[in-house]
């Protein structure tokens, strides 16, 4: 049997989570629901996709083998069809996401939760992994949660629900009590998603640095002591971010990752020695993760960018960064 079904890199950085999930799979005791807490959204998705791949890969019928995704690395041509579909978010059943995307409020719609419950009640040839991308009470509210509770309490074989949240305190107690908690942690800011950003954005790329300096100047101007002027500057910053998304053909996550990586890169020598800067880095990470989640939940990017710009400006002003 395999000691760990995940990649060596993920097993090293997330030892507790990967060992627990690997042992549960080996013993045939995967629980129906897990709650992943922490800021590292990219790491959470790596765990989910590697786990979903292992549960559905053609290779893993042999318990001594890991999935194509892990064993064959970037050689996607040699992957089985299930691993390829999961990697591209195109699998019809093995991996599904429940989010507030498309709803006016940004909350998970009760109708969506009910439809998912009905779908999961049907039999399937696949091991189905369901991700609630933001399980905080603000977005995964009680009516939607209640619609899924029966699936957790009376689980069908081959169904796994995974909830994402910054902390268990953000999640409804009725959901927390039915999940096993797994803290997604890192020994440094690097492992929390700053330096090894999965999008591969390089903060030293000259073109983007030039654009970033323009944005950085706008960010500085938002620290206006007059609240109204600061708000107007924040709106201007949001507009500039929107322009950059359109002109440079970047996706939203790439832009946010680039900005955060560039900002913290400038402060890297001071963060470990300054409590305020450490707090600033942590809060900025939280803001960026929430912005990426909200971008997938709202139809328009404008309010998401404006909220991020204003919150970032206020954070820098409060902590004098």
CA-CA gap between termini = 51 Å
CATH topology of the largest domain: Rossmann fold
Give the mean pLDDT.
Answer: 80
Percentage of residues assigned to helices: 40-55%
Parts with pLDDT < 50 across at least 5 consecutive residues: 186-207
Major sheet details: 5 strands, parallel
CATH domain class of the largest domain:
Alpha Beta
Radius of gyration from the alpha-carbon trace, in angstroms: 21 Å
Q: Can you tell me the CATH architecture of the largest domain?
A: 3-Layer(aba) Sandwich
Number of domains: 2
Number of helices: 13
Strand arrangement within the widest β-sheet reads: 2-3-4-1-5
Number of strands: 5
Form type = globular
Labels describing this entry:
alpha/beta; 13 helices; 321 residues; Rossmann fold; globular; five-stranded parallel β-sheet; single chain; 53% helix; 2 domains
Question: How would you describe the overall organization of this protein?
Answer:
The protein is α/β, with parallel strands linked by helices and 321 residues long. The chain has two domains: 8-183, Rossmann fold; 206-319. 53% of the residues lie in helices and 8% in strands. It is built from 13 helices and five strands. It has helices at residues 8-13, 15-26, 41-56, 68-71, 81-87, 110-120, 142-153, 173-176, 206-221, 227-247, 252-271, 275-297, 302-319; strands at 33-37, 95-98, 128-132, 159-165, 180-183. The chain has a five-stranded parallel β-sheet with strand order 2-3-4-1-5, with helices on both faces. The longest helix has 23 residues, at 275-297. The protein is globular, with a radius of gyration of 21 Å. Residues 186-207 have low confidence and may be disordered.
């Amino acid at each position: 049997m395999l000691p760990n079904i995940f990649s060596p890199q993920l097993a090293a950085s997330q030892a507790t989570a990967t060992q627990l999930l690997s042992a549960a799979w080996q013993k045939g005791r995967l629980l129906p629901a897990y709650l992943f807490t922490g800021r590292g959204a990219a790491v959470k998705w790596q765990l989910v996709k590697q786990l979903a791949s292992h549960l559905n890969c053609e290779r893993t019928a042999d318990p001594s083998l890991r999935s194509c995704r892990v064993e064959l690395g970037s050689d996607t041509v040699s992957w089985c069809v299930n691993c390829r579909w999961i990697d591209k978010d195109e699998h019809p059943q093995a991996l599904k996401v429940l989010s507030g995307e498309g709803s006016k409020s940004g909350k998970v719609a009760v109708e969506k939760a009910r439809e998912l419950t009905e779908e999961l009640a049907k039999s399937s040839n696949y091991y189905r992994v369901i991700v609630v991308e933001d399980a905080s009470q603000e977005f995964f509210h009680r009516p939607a949660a209640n619609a899924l509770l029966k699936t957790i309490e009376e689980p069908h074989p081959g169904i796994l629900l995974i909830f994402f949240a910054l902390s268990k305190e953000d999640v409804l107690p009725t959901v927390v009590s039915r999940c096993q908690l797994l803290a997604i942690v890192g020994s440094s800011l690097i492992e929390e998603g700053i330096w090894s950003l999965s999008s591969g954005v390089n903060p030293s790329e000259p073109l983007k640095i030039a654009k970033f300096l323009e944005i950085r100047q706008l960010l500085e101007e938002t620290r206006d002591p007059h609240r109204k002027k600061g708000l107007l500057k924040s709106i201007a910053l949001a507009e500039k971010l929107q322009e950059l998304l359109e002109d440079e053909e970047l996706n939203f996550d790439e832009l946010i990752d680039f900005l955060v990586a560039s900002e913290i890169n400038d402060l890297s020598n001071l963060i470990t020695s300054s409590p305020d800067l450490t707090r600033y880095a942590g809060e900025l990470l939280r803001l960026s993760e929430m912005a990426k989640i909200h971008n997938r939940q709202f139809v328009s990017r404008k309010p998401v960018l404006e909220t991020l710009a204003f919150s970032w400006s206020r954070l820098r002003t409060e902590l004098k960064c």
